[in-house]
Write a structure and sequence with these properties.
The protein is mainly beta. It contains 1 helix and 7 strands, in the order βββββββα. The mean pLDDT is 93.
């Protein structure tokens, strides 16, 4: 089960996402439903297993956030939580902009 205590708030956030499993390059499409500075929740029927390394691209309002991450929890037929492990500066700035807009 996911932890109830979080480092930063999560916000409702709906955007398309591409998830690529790092080892096999298996690509899946999903939709975000929550977003925070350190991760997101992805709605999808066939989530990857816990611990899987992934590359994620979230697209919203003609911008794209890209990060390397890992699956921290997986709920069969529902979705998965992904922690962001590394992102380029440009992507981090996009994420910060989106989060700032969600706070208001």
């Amino acid at each position: 089960m996911p932890k109830t205590e979080r480092r930063t708030p999560r916000y409702p956030f709906y955007a398309s996402a591409d998830i690529i499993e790092s080892t096999t390059q298996t690509k899946m499409n999903a939709r975000t439903s929550e977003l925070s500075r350190f991760g997101c929740y992805l709605d999808m029927l066939n989530p990857f297993p816990i611990g899987m390394s992934v590359n994620i691209v979230i697209r919203y309002q003609e911008q794209a956030f890209e990060a390397q991450g890992r699956v921290i929890y997986s709920q069969r037929n529902m979705g998965m939580g992904v922690a962001f492990d590394a992102a380029k500066l440009e992507s981090s700035e996009i994420l910060d902009k989106w989060l700032e807009g969600l706070k208001t």
